[in-house]
Amino acid sequence: MSSLECSKCGRFVDNVGEKTTKVICSYCTLNMVGLPEEKTKTYKPTGRPAGWHFMAEFVDKDGNVFHRGVEAKQLKGTLPPTKITKTKVKTKRRTKQQILLDRHKEKKQALKKAAKKQQDFLNHNFGE
Predict the structure, then answer these.
(1) 40-93 pLDDT, tens per residue?
(2) CA 69 to CA 112: how far, in whole Å?
(3) Helices in 47-95 by DSSP H: which ranges?
(4) Domain segments of the chain: what residues?
(5) What is the dihedral of CA 10, 16, 18, 20, to 10 degrees?
(6) Which of 13-22, 34-43, 66-75, 101-110 reaches the highest mean pLDDT?
């Protein structure tokens, strides 16, 4: 293994075979070819609900019928569109501070209830 000088810019290129006579470095190759274009996938809404392709049978608003995500063209327009139900909103997880505050409120209410019960007992109010 030896090194040769790039025929375009003069940089040295290492790890060249013994019988190699001319070489182009990676920088010059990149300049000739150019940077590869990144294909960014962008989300394109289809108008179908999430998970429609997992349903046993799904009919979109145009009448297209799908069985487990595969279109059944012979059934187009024969079935009514699938009714979509709203998904349940997930509740956010409480923080430790919120849990402590809620526990404090519950204990305070329990103490008030116990104090009221004792006051009623002292005043001879037995729930009559």
Answers:
(1) 888 888 888 888 889 999 998 888 999 998 999 999 989 999 988 877 888 889
(2) 59
(3) none
(4) 2-33, 49-83, 92-128
(5) -60
(6) 101-110
